[in-house]
């Protein structure tokens, strides 16, 4: 029950903190960098990728039925949108995942440092021995697992209910995994991190899924709106900033929750220590 209360306490602190100018800047910086990089990539690959995708959709036994179905139901005009829509559906998880990975690796440490300056957490000693290199490989490995799961489940994203269910679950898992590791990287020992992740695994997963559901809003708009398809470059940049703000909010949420849980864990352990020492003294005296 205490864990649930801390989830909502941390949620309120994160909502307020997200509106701070520093947090808005921390959300804008990764958005700007990732937007420029993906803008260049999309400009370079859009036409050749569409040509290859049209060939694949018309010749592959797995996707050629889509063209037949559209003709059968009298939607010949919609056939022109199939390849661009497929390409957008492929790019969405790649763009969103790359943004989350960049924020987890480059921005979360700054967010944790900002949270640590608050009086509530200033007494927490940095006992973690994790390194940025370790964080980098952990982040990349987690992202590769998530991307593999996304690609395996991508065909069923076309089913209307699943487009609002699968992305939150997948990005929720990735958000929980990355945020939990990076928030505790410098301040918790390996043993403390294992204890916290085991003790609060359901709360952390719920927080990750909640953040994933917020992230599914722009995904759902991308995947279901013809206007988003027509204005994909512009809409993608707007959606990217929405993603960025959501990921910064998630980092604040996890920071407040895990740092508070770490402080509580150490307070509890310190309270047990004098009892052990007194017991040893009593035994020696007797």
Strand percentage: under 5%
Note the gap between the termini: 42 Å
Helices and strands, in N-to-C order?
Answer: HHHHHHHHHH
Structural class: mainly alpha
Short description:
With 286 residues, the protein is an all-alpha fold. It contains ten helices and no strands.
Describe the structure.
It is a single chain. The protein is mainly α and 286 residues long. It is built from ten helices and no strands. The chain has helices spanning 2-18, 21-59, 64-72, 79-116, 132-153, 166-184, 190-199, 201-224, 226-230, 232-285. Helix 2 (21-59) packs across helix 3, helix 2 (21-59) crosses helix 10 and helix 6 crosses helix 8 (201-224). The radius of gyration is 23 Å and the shape is elongated. Residues 276-283 have low confidence and may be disordered.
In terms of topology, how is this protein built?
Layout lengths: L1 H17 L2 H39 L4 H9 L6 H38 L15 H22 L12 H19 L5 H10 L1 H24 L1 H5 L1 H54 L1
Helix pairs in contact: 1-10, 2-3, 2-4, 2-10, 4-5, 4-6, 4-10, 5-6, 6-8, 6-10, 8-10
Kindly list the characteristics that best describe this protein.
single chain; 286 residues; mainly alpha
């Amino acid at each position: 029950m205490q864990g649930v209360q801390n989830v909502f306490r941390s949620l309120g602190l994160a909502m307020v903190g997200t509106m701070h100018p520093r947090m808005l800047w921390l959300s804008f910086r990764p958005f700007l960098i990732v937007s420029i990089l993906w803008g260049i990539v999309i400009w370079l690959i859009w036409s050749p990728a569409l040509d290859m995708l049209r060939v694949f959709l018309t010749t592959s036994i797995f996707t050629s039925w889509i063209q037949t179905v559209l003709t059968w139901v009298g939607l010949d005009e919609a056939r022109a949108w199939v390849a661009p829509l497929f390409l957008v559906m492929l790019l969405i998880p790649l763009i969103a995942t790359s943004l989350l990975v960049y924020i987890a690796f480059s921005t979360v440490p700054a967010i944790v440092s900002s949270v640590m300056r608050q009086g509530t957490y200033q007494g927490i000693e940095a006992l973690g021995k994790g390194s940025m290199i370790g964080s980098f490989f952990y982040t990349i490995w987690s992202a590769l697992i998530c991307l593999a799961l996304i690609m395996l489940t991508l065909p069923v994203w076309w089913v209307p209910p699943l487009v609002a269910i699968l992305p939150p679950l997948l990005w929720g898992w990735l958000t929980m995994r990355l945020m939990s590791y990076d928030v505790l990287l410098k301040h918790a020992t390996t043993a403390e991190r294992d204890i916290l992740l085991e003790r609060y695994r359901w709360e952390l997963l719920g927080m990750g899924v909640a953040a994933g559901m917020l992230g599914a809003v722009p995904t759902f708009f991308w995947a279901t709106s013809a206007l988003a398809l027509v204005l994909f470059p512009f809409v993608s940049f707007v959606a990217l900033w929405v993603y960025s703000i959501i990921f910064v909010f998630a980092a604040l949420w996890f920071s407040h929750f895990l740092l508070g849980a770490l402080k509580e864990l150490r307070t509890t352990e310190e309270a047990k220590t004098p009892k052990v020492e007194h017991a040893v003294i009593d035994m020696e005296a007797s």
